[in-house]
Amino acid sequence: MAVPKFLVGDNTDHPENVFIIHTEYPRFVMDLDSDEVEWLDDIEGEDETELTDEMSKLLDEANTFYIREVERYEAMED
After folding, report:
1. What is the rounded distance in angstroms from the CA atom of residue 54 to the CA atom of residue 57?
2. Which of 33, 26, 27 minimizes the C-alpha distance to 11?
3. Cα–chain-centroid distance for residue 3?
4. Four-CA torsion 60, 61, 62, 68, nearest 10 degrees
């Protein structure tokens, strides 16, 4: 089974929040409501400039993924 690069998640303990889970290195969970990011992998020792660029790119991809998912759900409701 191939796990998707991004997943949408929710949790009844946080009913107002929507989370994006990135399943590839560096793995993270992003709270879309607060823009807080929890990095799940140890990223110390990496090239800081390269890693910062990669993180920024991944966060942009996560937001784009979520917008696409919402649009697809809305299209299915029509």
Report:
1. 5
2. 33
3. 14
4. 110
d(CA 74, CA 45): 42
Cα dihedral 42/48/50/52 (nearest 10):
80
Domain ranges of the chain: 6-77
Cα end-to-end span (Å), the chain:
31
How far is C-alpha 31 from the chain's CA centre? 8
Q: Is residue 75 helix, strand or coil?
A: helix
Question: Model confidence over 18-35: pLDDT tens digits?
Answer: 999 999 988 999 999 999
Please give the model's pTM, rounded to 2 decimal places: 0.85
